[in-house]
Design a protein that fits this description.
By secondary structure, the protein is of the alpha/beta class. Helix content is 48%, strand content 18%.
Length: 433
Amino acid sequence: MKHRCLLLVLIAGLLIARPETVQAVTGSVLVLEMEGVINPFTVRYLERGLRLAEQQGAQALVVTLDTPGGLEVSMREMVQMLLEAPVPTVVYVTPGGARATSAGMFVLLAADVAAMAPATHVGAAHPVPLGAEISDVMQEKVVSDAAALVRSVATSRGRNADWAEKAVRENFSITAAEALDLDVIDLIATDLSDLLRQLDGREIGGAVLQMARAIPEIRPMNLSERFFQVITEPNIAYLLLSLGTLLLLAELANPGLSIAGIGTVVAYIVAFMALGSLPVNWAAIALLGLSVVFFLVGLLTDTEVIVSLAGLVPFILGSLLLFTPFTPTSPAAPTARVSLWLIGVMAFSILAFSYLVLRAILAAGRRPPQAGAQKLVGMQGVALTGLNPTGQVRVDFQDWSAVAVGGEIHEGDPVRVTGIAGVRLYVERGDHE
């Protein structure tokens, strides 16, 4: 009997001394807002948010997400960050109408808690070749690689790996309600407050979240991150490319380092920065370049109507094909397209700009100067003194210092102005009237 009592006392002591494996955590909730194409700046934003959440001892990091996809490299970096995050992570697809497609689906599945708002959707991550045939082997490699990644991510988070693989292989997309029924996500929340309420008491990695009184701390993107997000919107990227074309035509119509030239360089640099994060058909870029050649030839020759109208064909075709690569894109890449209205507006703008503005610039450049000393070029005068080679001449009722070119000029000889340097004319012997 004594032995039994001692055993019970020993067991009770061990239970009392055993540390708790589940601890309640309190603290702030950091919120990041991600919208648009996933790119290197999105990666930097998430990295900054995770580091800040760890430094502040935040309970969790919540990422609100609305994305059509993005760069595969950036997506993989974000997935790795979320899988190895030092704090609990929540990815929340919001607001209503938002999506987590392509790269967004991978990011959503990598979070500790995957949540969606009503009227949102997830999926559509199959790589599709557009406009050209590719080998079955290449297609299978691309699909299998993406399927293996998404299956491993979903499995590590205890989510429906079969559906995740099907979303890649068969391009499936489902609503928030369907995602919850299929165990693709963990919960549906109407807004951020509802999300925090449902997270209250949830255990993540051995810690129980205390969200009842948590105040979310929203940390928006900084200026450079937001700027990059704006320009990677397909219509904005296309607008920058078209604006660069307009400025290039203006610069070529009146050559010289001017505002148009500087604007051309800036517009093209920013546009190609944006295109680097989008699925681009480089044949379409070549077509847009060909259209610039047509427009320029139309400006500089008498065939302006025919050639300029012909230039609209490669311009419109290049615009339509700009974001439709001929090879299979990564499942992380977004489905991008340019608004047909924007294409029409830019085509009309370039044509009108060519006729109304650039033609006027070219015509003005061909006319002789109407003011200043330059208007004297080509005018006739008379030598007031002998020029051997310097002397005085009278042109347009004004006396000028002059330098004879092409031989000596005698006093009283007619002269013709050939050029001007400062306040001195260059003249040659003119014809007697």
